[in-house]
């Protein structure tokens, strides 16, 4: 596989060839030593070695142990070259900066200094014992090469400072990129908040805590609401048999948690060290978000976790408040609609029915005294009134039914959304629907719309699909949804194991949570370059029984 050189690789390669050209020119112009042909042969060999080591360094930059060996081999070769071409008077003395730059810029600080000190020691000793025609002492040889040694020391210091700044910049860029990915995934969390079940909210938040902090275990403990049972607490990372003990221990301190407003560290007996953060809406205390700390975590790491839990606490409070406001809004909509229906029925139908009832009662009392003609006339009047009531009732029903009055239906909104998505992204979306959604309860409408929107959006954004097929079958007792695309696909095993590396991973979990909250089955199949297939089956009525 061809490895694309980085800017750092190019810079080091430029310096390598520049220094080799300069030192080789000085070596050729030197009147002493071997012949020009012999020198040219040495320079040709050096060029080949320079190309070899440049290629090796690019290949080995992600394998530090092997890179250490390669740098050490090049250093030994340069020492031999320097001694062979004149020792401390060699034109290739400064060529040693090449492995020094690699060691100081790409490897550990200890190896960089060890390599430099080893070179200075070995070079000085070998020059003293083998290339010392003027019979200088050891200190004189060190002093003669002082400028070289000082240059090497300054190079190591500067390169390590630059390397540290580079690492800090890379960490900052990675943190910024990670934060942006998390901000994008907030959409998925908000869309997961169900109007009829807190399970999705708590579970997705705990998964998100693990995703953000990179720790193994997180929890969302819900406190009891006044006059109502507590929503089901959720956790990520614990075994099922540990869950009950975990939440019972948290429940023992409920009074203390209600008084807390700042993050706290707490050791729970039998469970370990925890960082806990209260979640408060504007109207009440909701519960605690927490994560289990590793024993090796330092102070800086814990500060980072505190910042993330504060952020997630505020996010959770906003999501839950949005959930409750949505529930209240739906109740008000239903109440207003009930009042409107009652007013319409009272103003039209009930008045007419009262007239029929009164006429029938009068006829019952007086029919014996009436002639046949009067009786027939009275019955005809009652018949006309009943027909009028039936007509008014039919008009009222038609006005309330979006399906019959021509107003926007749920299936119409699904078609309109997919049509807009297709037009905006130049993607062919084929929608096939069998059955009728007229009697389908609201939670199913909401969940199905989110799943269809999420799946088609993922196929376009992450799968780069050019065609998406959506098949929706609506039956009185079952709903089946099939979504297929011809996108690039992905490895589904990596999705559930390493979902922190993919924004779409959280979207898939959201779809699974929504399906399971309605008692349904979620099946996902995909392979790289073969597209993605999502199959969902939901029994109608299970959600109502669950929340009854």
Automatic annotation (TrEMBL):
It is an enzyme of class 2 (transferase). It catalyses: ATP + protein L-histidine = ADP + protein N-phospho-L-histidine. This is Oxygen sensor histidine kinase NreB. Member of the two-component regulatory system NreB/NreC involved in the control of dissimilatory nitrate/nitrite reduction in response to oxygen. NreB functions as a direct oxygen sensor histidine kinase which is autophosphorylated, in the absence of oxygen, probably at the conserved histidine residue, and transfers its phosphate group probably to a conserved aspartate residue of NreC. NreB/NreC activates the expression of the nitrate (narGHJI) and nitrite (nir) reductase operons, as well as the putative nitrate transporter gene narT. One of its GO terms (molecular function) is kinase activity. Pfam families: HATPase_c, HisKA_3. Its EC number is 2.7.13.3. The chain crosses the membrane at residues 12-29, 35-55, 67-88, 108-131, 138-162. Its cofactor is [4Fe-4S] cluster. It is found in: Cytoplasm. Keywords: 4Fe-4S, ATP-binding, Cytoplasm, Iron, Iron-sulfur, Kinase, Membrane, Metal-binding, Nucleotide-binding, Phosphoprotein, Transferase, Transmembrane, Transmembrane helix, Two-component regulatory system. Residues 448-542 form the Histidine kinase domain.
């Amino acid at each position: 596989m061809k490895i694309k050189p980085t800017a750092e690789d190019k810079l080091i390669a430029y310096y390598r060839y520049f220094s080799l050209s300069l030192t080789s020119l000085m070596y050729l112009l030197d009147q002493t030593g071997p012949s020009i042909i012999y020198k040219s042969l040495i320079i040709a060999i050096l060029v080949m070695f320079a190309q070899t080591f440049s290629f090796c360094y690019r290949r080995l930059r992600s394998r530090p142990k092997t890179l250490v060996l390669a740098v050490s081999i090049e250093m030994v070769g340069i020492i031999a070259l320097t001694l062979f071409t004149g020792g401390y008077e060699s034109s290739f003395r400064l060529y040693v900066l090449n492995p020094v730059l690699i060691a100081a810029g790409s490897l550990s600080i200890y190896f960089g200094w060890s390599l430099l000190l080893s070179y200075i020691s070995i070079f000085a000793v070998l020059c003293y014992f083998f290339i010392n025609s003027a019979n200088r002492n050891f200190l004189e040889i060190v002093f003669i090469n002082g400028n070289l040694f000082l240059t090497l020391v300054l190079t190591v210091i500067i390169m390590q400072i630059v390397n540290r700044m580079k690492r800090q910049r890379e960490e900052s860029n990675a943190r910024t990129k990670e934060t942006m990915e998390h901000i994008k995934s907030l959409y998925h969390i908000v869309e997961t908040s169900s109007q009829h079940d807190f399970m999705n909210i708590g579970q997705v938040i705990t998964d998100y805590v693990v995703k953000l902090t990179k720790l193994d275990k997180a929890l969302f403990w819900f406190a009891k609401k006044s006059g109502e049972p507590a929503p089901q607490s959720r956790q990520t990372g614990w075994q099922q048999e540990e869950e009950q003990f975990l939440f019972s221990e948290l429940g023992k301190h409920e009074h203390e948690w209600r008084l807390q407003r700042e993050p706290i560290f707490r050791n729970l007996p039998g469970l370990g060290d925890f960082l806990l953060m209260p979640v408060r809406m504007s109207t009440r205390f909701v519960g605690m978000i927490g994560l289990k700390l590793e024993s090796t975590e330092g102070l800086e790491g814990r500060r980072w976790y505190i910042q993330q839990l504060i952020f997630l606490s505020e996010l959770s409070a906003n999501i839950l408040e949005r959930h409750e406001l949505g529930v209240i809004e739906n109740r008000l909509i239903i109440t207003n609609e009930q009042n409107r229906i009652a007013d319409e029925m009272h103003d039209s139908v009930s008045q007419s029915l009262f007239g029929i009832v009164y006429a029938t009662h009068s006829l019952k009392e007086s029919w014996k005294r009436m002639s046949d003609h009067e009786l027939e006339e009275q019955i005809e009047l009652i018949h006309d009134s009943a027909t009028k009531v039936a007509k008014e009732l039919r008009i009222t029903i038609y006005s309330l039914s979006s399906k019959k009055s021509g107003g926007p239906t749920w299936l119409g909104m699904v078609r309109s959304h997919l049509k807009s998505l297709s037009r905006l992204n130049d993607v062919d979306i084929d929608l096939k629907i069998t059955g009728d959604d007229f009697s389908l309860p609201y939670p199913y409408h909401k969940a199905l719309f989110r799943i269809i929107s999420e799946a088609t959006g993922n196929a376009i954004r992450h799968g780069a699909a050019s065609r998406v097929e959506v098949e929706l079958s609506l039956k009185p007792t079952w709903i089946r949804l099939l979504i297929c695309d011809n996108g690039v696909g992905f490895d589904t095993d990596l999705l559930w194991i390493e979902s922190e590396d993919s924004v779409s991973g959280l979207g898939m979990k959201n779809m699974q949570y929504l399906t399971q909250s309605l008692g349904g089955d979620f099946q996902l199949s995909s392979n790289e370059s073969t597209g993605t297939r999502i199959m969902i089956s939901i029994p109608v009525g299970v959600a109502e029984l669950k929340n009854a």
